[in-house]
Amino acid sequence: MGPRILVFLFVALSQVCTIPAMTDEADFTALKALKDIWKKVPPTWVGADPCGSRWEGILCANSRVISITLASMGLKGSLSGDIQSLSELQILDLSYNKGLSGPLPSAIGDLKKLTNLILVGCSFWGPIPDSIGSLPLLASLSLNSNGFTGSIPSSIGNLTSLYWLDLADNRLTGTIPVSTATTPGLDLLVHTKHFHLGLNQLSGTIPPKLFSSEMKLIHVLFESNKLTGSIPSTLGLVKTLEVVRLDNNSFRGPVPSNINSLTSVSTMFLSNNNLTGPLPSLTGMNVLTYLDMSNNSFDDTEFPPWLSTLQSLTTLVMETTQLQGQIPADFFSLSHLQTVDARNNQLSGSLDIGTGHGNQLALIDLRKNQISGYTNGLGGEAGVSVILADNPICQETAVTKSYCTVSQPNSSYATPPNNCVPASCFAKQHSSPNCKCAFPYTGLLVFRAPSFSDLGNITYFSVLEKSLMNSFKSHQFPVDSVHLSQPRKDLSQYLDLNLQVFPFGQDRFNRTAILSIGFMLSNQTFKPPAQFGPFFFIGDTYLHFTGEVRGSKKSSSTGAIIGAAAGGSVLLLLLLGAGIYAFGQKMKAEKAILQNNPFAHWESNNGVGGVPQLKGARCFSFEELKKYTNNFSETNDIGSGEYGKVYRGVLPTGELITIKRALREWMQPGLEFKTEIELLSRVHHRNVVSLVGFCLERGEQMLIYKFVSNGSLMESLSGKTGIRLDWVRRLKVALGAARGLAYLHELANPPIIHRDIKSTNILLDESLNAKVADFGLSKLMGDSEKGRVTTQVKGTMVNSSITSLHLHNTIISNFFFVGRKL
């Protein structure tokens, strides 16, 4: 090793040893306070630099803690108010730690940048603090499976960015809050897609005001509460609904006649209430798969013919619904039908399931009716379990037919070995589907509204296993295989499945892997196959981490000998490590340059100028944006125009972004696009929307901005967002917009004239601060001049009196427009 190399390694080693602490002091103090009151924190939680020394479960950016994910770590203790000091925190996931208890501190409301609050399957109790409504960026609120009491805070209605609301399986009481002249309510959550409030003790009626046609809800899960009154007809206005569960309450009166306008609903539970009046017609609900209206007091009704028109139906549960007459044979010919449960009615005549019944049919349970004959004796021979016990046909002397006994189809399932012989494993280890002994990560998968009922159909579970593995692989998690077992329906008609996740390449997981898998399941990153519906996961505490096995005295002694022998080589190892570190840092720096600036290798003679000079913006790959927007899904589509579509996305940090995706006919030449991103990256003002980055890949041109949570000024003025703009707020908006425009006109480098200012181009953030948008070099919509743009860089126009006058008038008109609209 030459002298120069030795000098280099010595300098590198010196730099490694003198790296200053990376963690913000206030953040470290807060984490230390949490560490002091928590038991069983990860063993890497040592030292005074959580960011620099990489405390497991802690993610940092610019020396600030932005994420805490500690699922299934076995933590014990409470959550103290010290959490409020983590002012940059975006994600807090403490799920599956049953040892965490106590009240949720009101200081949680000080985490203004929090986007994901996930406390699934802990033991927190007490009221949900009203301050939770002070989290303007919160997109996911998952507090299910705890012991929270008290009422649902009306302040949750302030969370206009909320996508996921899950308060199920607690002990919440009181009514469902809706807005008044002075207080917010859940009716203001027009962009929320999930209302999961089941398994509580909520009372009172469902306020008709709760639902409106502006809502984007897909799940309304209010099952197993103490709700009373009638089902509001406004429910029928929410055309986006896919799953409705109102069962196990005390609803009374008729079902609204417009319920069949919910043509996107696949699963509907209205069972175990006091509903009266005629059986509702569900004609036109062509994607309905699972229908349960059992145990109500409907009027006596002949078996309705519209049931035979529901071509997607898999499951019909109509126990004690006052059905009469004969079931038509053509009903059983529905191709997807699996289960018919119409016990305890007045069905009569002869049962004929026909010879052309659907091949998925598994169970017909007609106990306690008035059926006198069975004209098609297929029964068990055709794989269909028919139960006619307590009918006249089974009361004849010496009847021994199988259909006169009660026997349910066998639904046992366990993932089979993958063409191998299961291994014989030590205690607490399990043989994986690939026949390897290991310590799996275990837990319970719970599906709240599956669209199928035949648990003996193993195809469903094979598809779920494949979906889980694909998700783990796409995130590059070290997972070898998954094992599902014991599918069963619980008292809430949820589908429960035991899950085991096996490690890849070794017999146990490290903490990073468990944290990653736990977060993927708690944060709903994993999307199960559609037929399984909404789900949650309750993970067990993992006890067998890599490198944390307690040894005997012998192993400790062996470790000491090895440590002593290794001591003589410490200096050499440090020097080698320093060299590797320096080389690694160089490679990381080069990789970062390529990731953040795809133009790094542009040549000056490529026809579009030299390398773009960007300030604060980065490049996103097409695959990244595809991932952040759920494959540019319709649910992430938040607007469109002649120029293209606008999508909402979520970065891995939890930060919300807006993606403007240009249509091909509105894409700009390379030089124009380069000029635009250079210009936009230099615009930084609190009243101007900030550019986060761009994408120029696969023939796409996309601009990525910070998400502005309260939409446009036009939406607020029209009442669409539910925000009341009194004169004080209007003045605040006007001043903010004016400051933003003044910055663009006078202080931006170079100055920018907007030329397309309108109420849709003024956005409002969580504090109702105005932010000027769409000032980039986008073409005028509907303009016949090819290449004309809405924004003009000041000083580039033709120097004529007419143009100067037009420019002057444009600046004045921008300010005039804002004032006039407000």
Automatic annotation (TrEMBL):
GO terms for cellular component: membrane. Its main location: membrane. The chain crosses the membrane at residues 560-583. This is non-specific serine/threonine protein kinase. GO terms for molecular function: ATP binding; protein serine/threonine kinase activity. Keywords: ATP-binding, Glycoprotein, Kinase, Leucine-rich repeat, Membrane, Nucleotide-binding, Repeat, Serine/threonine-protein kinase, Signal, Transferase, Transmembrane, Transmembrane helix. Residues 1-18 form the signal peptide. Gene3D superfamilies: Phosphorylase Kinase, domain 1, Ribonuclease Inhibitor, Transferase(Phosphotransferase) domain 1. It comes from Populus deltoides (Eastern poplar). Coiled coil: none annotated.
